[in-house]
Write a structure and sequence with these properties.
The chain contains 23 helices and 18 strands. About 30% of the residues are buried. Strand 12 (about 385-390) and strand 13 (about 395-400) form a beta hairpin. It is elongated and about 120 Å long. Helix 7 (about 170-195) packs antiparallel against helix 9. It folds into 3 domains: about 10-225, no CATH class; about 295-585, C8orf32 fold (Roll); about 650-749, no CATH class. By secondary structure, it is of the alpha+beta class. A 5-stranded antiparallel sheet has the order 11-14-9-4-16, with no helix packed on it.
Length: about 750
């Protein structure tokens, strides 16, 4: 008898467990999935450390919400502790030592303030994500609210996908999947509440209950994911709105701004111009606003400018491509791209490996890389596009602009040996250069004589070609202020360089670099115009430098850089026979990163050094190495031990809490309060009570729905009636029996 009863009891416990997991906890997992899709929108604004902290916190949220049913306070404590521990582990938090005296309020306050501010903003973002997950789970209690949550999430993701450079359709699919699962849980809850007998019968066969829902949802999601892409049938809402206002829809141009009807904004125009890489450079000038949306991420072994295209023909208004340039087909796997002129030797050449991951969904005309590329390791995306290598202009150009996922290229970057450059001439004395230099000395008749006179005046006293170019570079970067909105109303000259130097006298990179090339050519120095992107930003290194006093930046600048539209840039390159093309940066406020020979002194770091107090300077480095990990490990261990002890002692802690809450109450009063708590619990579990019913009528109805608990229902009802209406004082033992019976009912449900 006992042996048969034990398996039956075990089966009942197992059934109760999975029902609780399905109906009372599973929707929390779906809210977690929705939050994960939403935070994906911050991919290029949050650091990697931030995502690690948030993911760790949400992982603890998912585990605790699924495994711990009623102890809300315990769940919250564990989740908040997880956020703090994750921030301490993943964020750039540095142990600063204990207070000099715990009796000094200023010392204690400084101790907590100095350590607490290092958790910003990691802990706040993790706790914010935690709060959103809890809010969604608490609010989505019925079908209408759940549908509203899912629709808001999907519309938010779709809007961001439309107006920002993100591919969020996989996230939308996950959001729809979570919403459908959530609706299934809501439906089963309503089935339990309205038709308990049917629910009881279905719940005995969980596989048959869940399999149809899983199959239907799986088929819907797979059909949406695997269905081939169809052509766009509807215009983007932004395009529809702009056309309804009779306005042009802009598209990206160069740093100078957007293209309107295929042409760049003319000087003095008032278009909505924004920075970005573009194709049309025939007319430079005008103003623009910085667009900080991300374009790509570059993981590189050497910090560099990412060159795209080269222009040699100056028209007086802008730049155009040379005609009849020779190109050769190129593809992934090419290891030795030829150079024109070829390098005689590779002494002082650095091999730079770059993996570029495109963030925007734009089609790109070229592969961006440090110059010059020497090999292509991998290209992902683009459906095997046709690529061509221009060995003279160092361009890897697609036959048609192509949308890529990522690519890896290898470049051979020449170290900047200034001593050697000063010993060389840009043009050989006999005029026999290794490459045809005439395109790089070309100037239109529109260039006035005063441009040549200014170039000669600036370079007066220079004894070699390299110093002449450095004088031009320094003059432009220190004389003319940088602005993205130059006053083009001052322009009178038809030549843009002449107007920049003598009339507008302010501008951005296109003005500086074009002026440098033209002024150098007036001196007989071969130069060309290059456009691409600056290195981008690596804010994590800067933040580590700010928090960590012992941080030393990599002199080569290896790392991962986020390149944005605002990083679109143009600069110049000058030719030296026997050396090759050398980049120059004439734009005010910019500095091109170039590798130096091994014996050259390292440049001063741009990263602000952390100021140390005298006390900090005397601390030995060894103590700083182990103090932070030990403190973090000790804190994490204490949190885990405290949580484990609380779970192990949860019954006694709960009893202590009840005693504290009911302190001063008689046993009769405690039984009445316990009954009120039990009735509230039953109603939360879907047991209805009509306003006109007595408590005995209510319990009679509940006993009919849940016959296995009939004895427990009758027991607590009799004890309640005796305490409430009997007129006699019950003892502590009766109060304890009531609490035990009520706890058995809660466990069974």
């Amino acid at each position: 008898m006992n042996q048969a009863a034990q398996p039956a009891s075990a089966r009942r416990k197992e059934a109760v467990l999975w029902r609780k997991l399905l109906l009372e906890r599973l929707h929390r997992l779906f809210s977690l999935i929705l939050v994960l899709q939403l935070i994906h929108c911050f991919g290029d604004y949050w650091w990697t450390e931030t995502y690690r902290v948030v993911y760790a916190t949400l992982a603890v949220y998912g585990i605790t919400e699924l495994l711990i049913s009623r102890a809300l306070a315990l769940r919250l404590i564990l989740q908040v502790a997880a956020a703090l521990v994750a921030a301490a582990v993943y964020a750039p938090v540095r142990w600063l030592g204990w207070p000099l005296s715990w009796r000094s309020w200023d010392e204690v306050r400084h101790f907590f303030a100095a350590h607490g501010e290092q958790f910003h903003p990691f802990a706040e973002l993790a706790l914010g994500a935690l709060l959103v997950a809890h809010a969604l789970a608490a609010w989505g209690t019925n079908r209408a609210r759940t549908i509203a949550i899912v629709l808001v999430t999907v519309f938010t993701l779709a809007a961001i996908d439309s107006y920002f450079p993100y591919e969020l359709w996989p996230n939308i699919a996950w959001a729809v999947l979570a919403g459908l699962g959530w609706l299934v849980v809501i439906h089963l809850r309503q089935l339990r509440d309205r038709h308990y007998d049917s629910w009881e019968a279905l719940a005995e066969r969980p596989l048959e209950l869940m399999l149809p829902a899983v199959v239907v949802i799986g088929v819907l999601i797979l059909a949406g994911v695997l269905m081939p892409r169809a052509p766009v049938l509807l215009e983007d809402p932004y395009t529809i709105w702009m056309e309804a206002q009779n306005k042009e829809v802009p598209s990206l141009a160069g740093e100078g701004g957007y293209l309107i009807n295929g042409s760049p904004l003319s000087p003095g125009s008032s278009g909505s111009a924004k920075s970005g890489y573009g194709r049309n450079d025939t007319q430079i000038g005008g103003g623009f606003q910085f667009d900080y949306s991300p374009v790509m991420q570059v993981t590189t072994t050497q910090k560099a400018y990412w060159r795209g295209e080269t222009k040699a023909v100056y028209t007086g208004k802008g730049w155009s491509d040379r005609k009849g340039m020779e190109t050769v087909p190129a593809s992934a796997g090419d290891k030795n791209l030829p150079l024109d002129p070829p390098r005689e030797k590779k002494e002082g050449v650095r091999e730079v490996v770059q993996t570029v991951t495109m963030i925007r969904k734009d089609r790109v005309p070229v592969l961006f890389a440090a110059g010059p590329p020497s090999g292509i390791e991998e290209i992902k995306g683009g459906n095997n596009p046709k690529l061509f290598w221009n060995s003279e202009e160092w361009e890897l150009r697609f036959q048609r602009p192509t949308q890529l996922e990522s690519y890896t290229v290898v470049s051979e970057v020449q170290e900047l040996d200034e001593n050697r450059l000063r010993s060389l001439s840009a043009v050989p004395k006999d005029g026999r250069a290794s490459v045809d230099l005439s395109p790089y000395l070309q100037l239109p008749t529109s260039v006035p004589k005063r441009v040549r006179d200014l170039a000669e005046q600036v370079t007066e006293g220079a004894t070699d070609d390299y110093d002449k170019l450095k004088k031009l570079e320094s003059y432009l970067s220190t004389t003319y202020p940088y602005t993205n909105t130059p006053d083009t109303g001052k322009q009178k000259s038809s030549d843009v360089v002449d107007a920049f130097l003598f009339e507008i006298q302010e501008g951005y990179c296109d003005y500086y670099s074009t002026a440098f090339v033209v002024m150098a050519r007036t001196l007989g120095l071969p130069t060309r115009w290059v456009k691409g992107y600056t290195s981008g930003s690596n804010p994590a290194d800067e933040e580590r430098a700010r928090y960590g006093g012992g941080y030393t930046p990599d002199p080569d600048g290896a790392g991962t850089y986020t390149v944005r539209n605002a990083d679109a840039h143009s600069w110049a390159e000058a030719y030296f026979e026997g050396y090759g093309w050398v980049p120059f940066e004439p734009t005010a406020g910019f500095s091109i990163p170039l590798p130096l020979p091994k014996d050259a002194p390292l440049p001063t770091s741009d990263v602000t050094e952390t100021i140390q107090t005298p006390d900090e300077e005397t601390v030995e480095p060894a103590s700083a190495d182990w103090s932070k990990p030990v403190a973090i490990a000790a804190g994490a261990l204490l949190v885990v031990l405290a949580a484990a002890w609380a779970v192990w002692k949860r019954r006694s802690l709960l009893a202590s809490w009840k005693r504290l809450r009911h302190r001063g109450a008689t046993p009769n009063q405690r039984i009445v309060r316990e009954m009120e708590s039990l009735v509230s619990f039953m109603q939360r579990r879907g047991f209805k009570r009509n306003p006109h019913e007595t408590l005995r009528e209510t319990f009679a109805g509940w006993s009919g729905r849940f016959g296995s608990l009939r004895a427990e229902f009758e027991g607590v009802l009799q004890q309640f009636e005796s305490a409430r209406y009997g007129g006699e004082r019950v003892d502590e033992e009766a109060c304890a029996r009531f609490a035990e019976t009520a706890e058995r009912i809660r466990k069974a449900l």
